[in-house]
Write a structure and sequence with these properties.
Length: 407
C-alpha cells in the first residue's frame, strides 16, 4: 500500500502528466488538421512517456539524496541510542592476535564483558599484550579456525567456564587475504586458502557455538568486506570468499530470527591491520605470484605488470587508516544495540561507495571503483604489443592513403 505521505507527490505528478498530454494533443491536432485525433493523442502520450522515462531516474535520485540527508541529520541531532548493559555478557572473538580482533578484545574487556579471545599463537606478541593489559575476565584460547579439533576444544573450554550461562556474542573476525593479483595469475591454492579461512573456518566456528548463542538469544557479528559485494580488481580470491560469507550471514539472519539470535555484518573501509604495513610481506607475496606463473603466462602479462600491481597494493595499504576505533565502536554497537542493524558501514566513504554501486549506471560505478582502488597504468605485455602493431598498421595505412592522393 502506498504511503500516505507520498500521495500528494503522485497526485501532482499525475495531474502534470494529464496536463502535458492535453496540451500536446491540442498542439498536434492544431498543426495536423488532416490527422485523426487518435494519432495526435498517441503521439503526445508516447512523447510524455519518453520524457517521463528520461526524468524519472533524476527524480528518484534527488528523492533518495533528500531522504538520506534527512536521516543523517536526524541521527546526528537526536539523543544517543539506548544500549544494553555489558556486565555479565560473554563474547567470543576470533583472530585476536592483531588488528580488529585484538582491539575489540581490549575494548569489550574494558566495558565489562567476559571475553574469550582466540589467537593462533599463545606466545605471540598479540596474546602477551592481551594478557598484560586486560582483566582476569579475559580468557585466551589457542584456535586455528580451519582445524575442527581446535574449534571443538575451544567450545569445551568455553562451556566449562560459562557453566549454565549461554554465550551472548560471537564476533567472527578471523580472516586472511592469501594473495593479490589478476584471477588468471592466482594459483588455485590461493582461492582455496581464502575460502578455507574466511568461509569454511567461520562456518565451523559459527555452527559449533550456535547452541550457546541460541540459549542466550545472543548476537552474531561478522567482519566481512566490500570486496565480497563489489568486483575489486586483483582481489578475486579474497572477494569470492567474502561473497560466500556474506550470503551465509544473510541466510543465518533469516534462519535464526525465530530463535531470537540477531545477526549483523560489518563492512569496514581500508584500515591498517595484520600484514598491511609489512614490507617483507608484500615482497613475499610478489615473489610467490611470479613463481606460480607459467613462463607462457609471464610472457603474456610481463613482470613489470605484476610488479606494478604489488606496488599499487602496497601504496594503498600504506595510506590506510591506522585508527581502528570506528570498526571497534561498530562491533560494540552491534552487540549492545536493542535493535541491531543487518549491515553496518564502518569507516568513511563506504556508504557512498555502496550508494554509487547500487544506484548509479555501470559506467559510473565501474570508473569510481577503478579510480578508488587499483589505478593500473601498465598494460599486459601482449596487449602492448598488439596496440603497437595496430598503431604501426594504422600509420602504414595513412601513409599509403597519402601517397595515393599525391598520385
Amino acid at each position: 500500500m502506498m504511503d500516505d505521505y507520498n500521495l500528494p507527490f503522485w497526485i501532482y505528478t499525475g495531474v502534470l502528466t494529464v496536463f502535458i498530454c492535453g496540451a500536446m494533443k491540442k498542439i498536434l491536432a492544431s498543426h495536423l488538421s488532416a490527422t485523426p485525433t487518435l494519432v495526435a493523442w498517441l503521439g503526445a502520450t508516447v512523447l510524455v512517456e519518453r520524457l517521463w522515462a528520461f526524468c524519472l531516474p533524476a527524480v528518484l535520485l534527488m528523492a533518495l539524496l533528500v531522504l538520506a540527508c534527512c536521516i543523517y541529520f536526524a541521527t546526528r541531532t537526536g539523543s544517543p541510542p539506548a544500549t544494553l548493559p555489558a556486565h555479565g555478557k560473554a563474547v567470543l572473538i576470533t583472530g585476536c592476535d592483531s588488528g580488529f580482533g585484538n582491539a575489540t578484545a581490549k575494548c569489550l574487556d574494558a566495558l565489562g564483558f567476559e571475553v574469550f579471545a582466540t589467537v593462533l599463537d599463545l606466545s605471540g606478541d598479540g596474546a602477551r599484550e592481551l594478557q598484560r593489559t586486560c582483566s582476569p575476565h579475559l580468557t585466551l584460547l589457542q584456535v586455528d579456525i580451519t582445524q575442527p579439533q581446535q574449534v571443538q576444544q575451544a567450545l569445551l573450554d568455553t562451556k566449562a567456564k560459562l557453566g549454565l550461562k549461554g554465550l551472548w556474542g560471537l564476533v567472527n573476525n578471523a580472516g586472511v587475504c592469501v594473495n593479490f593479483g589478476d584471477a588468471e595469475l592466482s594459483l588455485m591454492s590461493n582461492f582455496r586458502g581464502c575460502m578455507e579461512v574466511n568461509f569454511f573456518g567461520t562456518l565451523s566456528v559459527t555452527k559449533s557455538f550456535l547452541p550457546l548463542l541460541r540459549h542466550a538469544r545472543g548476537r552474531i557479528v561478522t567482519i566481512s568486506s566490500p570486496a565480497g559485494d563489489q568486483p575489486f580488481p586483483c582481489l578475486a580470491a579474497y572477494g569470492a570468499s567474502k561473497a560466500a560469507l556474506n550470503l551465509l550471514t544473510n541466510t543465518l539472519r533469516h534462519e535464526l530470527e525465530p530463535w531470537g539470535v540477531q545477526v549483523s555484518t560489518i563492512l569496514p573501509s581500508a584500515y591498517k591491520t595484520g600484514q598491511s604495513s609489512n614490507h617483507a610481506y608484500w615482497e613475499q607475496q610478489h615473489k610467490q605470484l611470479l613463481q606460480g606463473m607459467s613462463p607462457a603466462l609471464l610472457e603474456e602479462y610481463g613482470e613489470d605488470y605484476v610488479t606494478e600491481t604489488k606496488e599499487l597494493f602496497q601504496s594503498h595499504a600504506s595510506q590506510s587508516n591506522p585508527d581502528l576505533s570506528p570498526v571497534v565502536d561498530t562491533i560494540v554497537q552491534a552487540l549492545l544495540s536493542p535493535q541491531p542493524q543487518a549491515s553496518y558501514y564502518a569507516g568513511p566513504g563506504i556508504g557512498l561507495m555502496y550508494f554509487i554501486y547500487s544506484y548509479c549506471p555501470f559506467s559510473i560505478s565501474n570508473r569510481f571503483l577503478q579510480n578508488l582502488f587499483v589505478k593500473k597504468k601498465v598494460m599486459p605485455r601482449a596487449l602492448r604489443k598488439q596496440s603497437g602493431y595496430n598503431l604501426n598498421l594504422s600509420l602504414h595505412n595513412n601513409n599509403n592513403n597519402n601517397e595515393e592522393k599525391l598520385k
